[in-house]
Structure formats: C-alpha cells, structure tokens
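dumping this here before i forget
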Amino acid sequence: MNYSKLYNFAVESYAKLPYHFGGGRAFRPLSLFVELTYRCNFRCNMCQFLNILDDPRLNEKKGEELATDEINRVVDQISGLGLIVFTGGEPLLRKDIMELVRHAARRHKVYMVTNGILLKEDVADEFVRLGGGTLFSHGMASVGISLEALGPRHDEIVQVPGSFEKIMGNVRHFVAAKKRAGKTFPLVWLKCVITSHNVAMLDDMYALAEEAGVDMFNPITYYGIPATDRLAMTGEIAPDASPVPADNFDTAELRRQLEKMRQREKTSKVQLRITPPGLTDGDVLAVYERRLDMGNKACYTPWSSAALSAYGDVFPCSNYTVGNIRQTPFMELWNNGKMTGFRRELKKRKIFKSCAACCSMVYEGQPSSYPLID
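structure:
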C-alpha cells in the first residue's frame, strides 16, 4: 500500500473546499510542522539553516525555544488524528523530545525527521512501542532518517566523521525492533537531498535501503531558497524570488539514476517516493535544468497545514510569518488577516515563482507534457 499517496490525497481533499469557497479562511489545521530547535550536531552542506548554525545568537537563544507545554498546547489544537511533524535542526537534541512525542501520539499521527545519529536503541524501541496500528490510528506513524550519501561521502557532506556507520547501525536496530514487535508502524524512511555530491549513487542508496529493510527511500529535490533568518525573523523571501540551482550538477547522470531507480522499483519491497510527491521524472529533471514549468502547478498546503518555529512564529509556508503564539493564540493566527491575505494571494497566482521544487507543490490538472522516464 502506498501510504504517502493516501495521506496526500486526504490532505489535499480536506484543503480544497475552503480553498475554493473560504475566501481565504480555512478549517482547523490537519497538520502541524514543528521546528523544535535550530541547533544541530551536523553541518550538512546543503542545509537551508546552514547560515545560522554557527551564529553565536543560536546558543544565546536556546533559552527562548518554546517550552514543552507551549508546544503541547498548539498540538492539542490540531484536528484529531492529524499529523504532527517534529523537525529541526535536530529534534533529538531536545531533552523533552520523548515527552513531546508521547503527548502528540495520544491523539495524532507523529512523523519525525532526524539525522539518525542520536536514534539510539532506547529511542527506537520507544518509537516502536508508540507505533500506531494502522495509517488512520494515532501514534508514531513514521521516522525519516537523513542519509545523504554512502560511506565517507555522507560523512563529508554532514561534516561528521564516522556518522554513516553509526546511523546505519541505528537504522538496522530500528528495523529489527519493528520486526520483533510485529508492527508496520512507524514506517522507516531513508531520505536524501539530491545534489551534485550524491546524484551518481542514488540507485545504490536505494539498494542500501532494500538491504537495510526500511519501508521507503525518499530522494528530495534541492529547493535552493534559503530560509528566513529564524533567529531574528527578518528577510522574508519575496514570492518571485528564483531558487538558486545546485552547483555543477550533472543532469544526464540524474536521468540515468532515475531510470535505474524506476527499474528497481518494479520489483522492490521498498517504496520509492521522490519529493515533491507526484512530480513526474521529467519535471524532476526540469528542476535541475532550471526550466520547470510553473504554469500547471498549485499549492493547497496553507489551507490544511501550519508550521511553528522554535521560538513561536507561525508560518503558512517556510518563509512568511503571520505572528507569534506568545503574543496571539494559535487559532487566532490561523485565520488572521495576514494568513487569509496570504491564502487569497496564493490562490490568485496559483503558485509563486519561489515555490519551485518545494515539497508542497502539486499539479493543477494534468502533469507537464514533459514525459515520464520509462
């Protein structure tokens, strides 16, 4: 069963009624993306937060990160059986991470994105214990583990020697713990951002995902838009900003790797999910060739989902804030003037130029005429 497609269909359907008839307002959010911290023990060379990771202000603001109860209060306002995504930075650096996960898992599905280095046996075992029974149950739904390449190349990208072997050891324990418990959930994903540093080994990474017994391999297109300065909340990205392309990228190699992965997918037990989900392979290539047709794309995400920064700022998307929960209650922000104005402008334009390759981008109507790779 393709769990991602089922979930994406449900969320998009939930958003479309207010999108077409709500005048900028939306139903209660169905999902919440929580950036728990911007602190991280890796320094991935393509990270959108790389500009703040070594900023002295980051440690100075550690005490300003949202407290456990502040996060839980917002989580409790998301629709029942909605999706709570914990990300960062590295979420496992939060000392209260298990308390946050347990609280969210009581009423919602929980997804975590982690670099995996701190996904020790006790953490993995607890995630398995919290695993939901079905796709529509509350509990730990999935864990996405960032693995940016194979072996020493991964260690170079994240700038942590020996990290590849440690992560894979943690992954194998996680998979074994699921099997011992007889559980389908949480699903275990291996994720990577497609860059010039790993493009030639994508199919080999898919093969590693098969060997490790995970549920999904998830290559992600390089977004190329830096995040707003989360420390100062300045420098919002203009809607017509152009994403910066990946440097020295071999698109011919990407085509070869896509062909090999699609061939492997035909017989693999490991699902292949390329993000943005549903994007044709032709359009994945077009992202890197800087010729992506945005005329047939749309975004419905701000009608179903919100993001919360580590310091309480609320976003309809990653680079535009509508207020802070420490000044205004979350549900007031959800349909306030800035949020409804943003939605109306997005609906008017269908999508912004700066949205190219964002994971929330979907097709409006039929996919691009640029063909799939068979």
